[in-house]
Specification:
- The structure holds 2 protein chains of 2 kinds.
- By secondary structure, chain A is mostly helical.
- Chain A contains 3 helices and no strands.
- In chain B, helix 2 (27-47) packs antiparallel against helix 3 (51-75).
- Classes of the chains: A mainly alpha, B mainly alpha.
């Protein structure tokens, strides 16, 4: 396995997440997609670390650890906001949340 | 040889899980596909000799985020998506176009034919060294992260609780 295999896989996963974020209407599915993209980025960090000059410095796992913690905070706050939005609009459909758009 | 086989199996699992999670109409099924994706990625981390990150991936993503997503779905609307409403957004075609463009741009550096760097065969100082690193040069980051997680906890509880109207307290019940 070369580094390129992992990078292409991460690019593919990132694009799957991007596709979900762009094409779905349900806000929770968009949140899934953001998680998929973050995980693809983590895969890149770990792959670059494994194929780096000096892996004993552990930069890759440390950065990934911090990224995972930030992503966990993001998903908790995101879902709480989703529940608040649902209470207000009675839906999590992104296309019906258009109050700010003055027709 | 074994590594190559494991890489392809885990890649197929991860990509398939991600695709199903993104395309599925039924949100609960989507979450389970997402968990499959997380598990496949955890296997890839093991393959890259990052065993602590693989364990964290299982604990945080499969354990915590999966359950959180399931609860959020059950607290909001239509779980099954059995009705006839569209699941895709109005601009889905342009979304696909932009996604394809981004994929091509991400793959552009591959045409440069750089010599692939060598993989480290063994990486001995793993979890213990990670702990030392977290304490010695990265302790400020760790503390900021702890603060962020506390703030996120409080923020999530406050946001999900909703705003209490003063009228509710006045109303006789």
């Amino acid at each position: 396995m070369t580094l390129h295999h992992y990078l292409i896989l991460a690019a593919l996963l990132f694009c799957v997440g991007l596709m979900g974020a762009f094409t779905r209407r349900n806000a929770i599915v968009v949140l899934f997609s953001v998680e998929i993209m973050l995980n693809a980025a983590n895969l890149n960090f770990i792959a670059f670390w494994r194929y780096s000059e000096n892996p004993a410095l552990l930069h890759g796992p440390l950065f990934t650890l911090f990224a995972i913690a930030v992503a966990a905070a993001e998903v908790a706050v995101g879902l709480a906001l989703m529940i608040a939005v649902y209470r207000h609009f009675k839906t999590v459909d992104l296309e019906s949340m258009d109050t700010l758009r003055e027709e | 040889m074994n590594e190559v086989v494991a890489f392809w199996i885990l890649s197929v699992i991860a990509v398939f899980g991600a695709l199903v999670a993104v395309r599925k109409r039924n949100l609960i099924h989507g979450v389970f596909a997402l968990l499959v994706f997380f598990a496949g990625l955890s296997g890839l981390f093991l393959l890259l000799l990052a065993e602590f990150i693989a364990a964290v991936q299982v604990l945080v993503y499969i354990g915590a985020v999966g359950i959180l997503l399931l609860f959020a779905i059950m607290l909001t609307e239509r779980v099954t998506g059995d009705d006839d409403r569209r699941v895709t957004s109005r601009g889905w075609f342009w979304g696909l176009v932009v996604t394809a463009a981004v994929f091509v741009v991400l793959l552009l550096p591959a045409i440069q034919q750089l010599p692939p760097p060598k993989a480290a065969q063994t990486i001995d100082p793993s979890v213990k060294e990670l702990g030392h690193k977290l304490m010695n040069p990265y302790v400020v980051t760790l503390e900021v992260l702890a603060l962020l997680l506390t703030a996120a906890l409080i923020g999530a509880v406050t946001a999900a609780q909703g705003v209490r109207m003063p009228k509710e307290e006045d109303s006789p019940e």
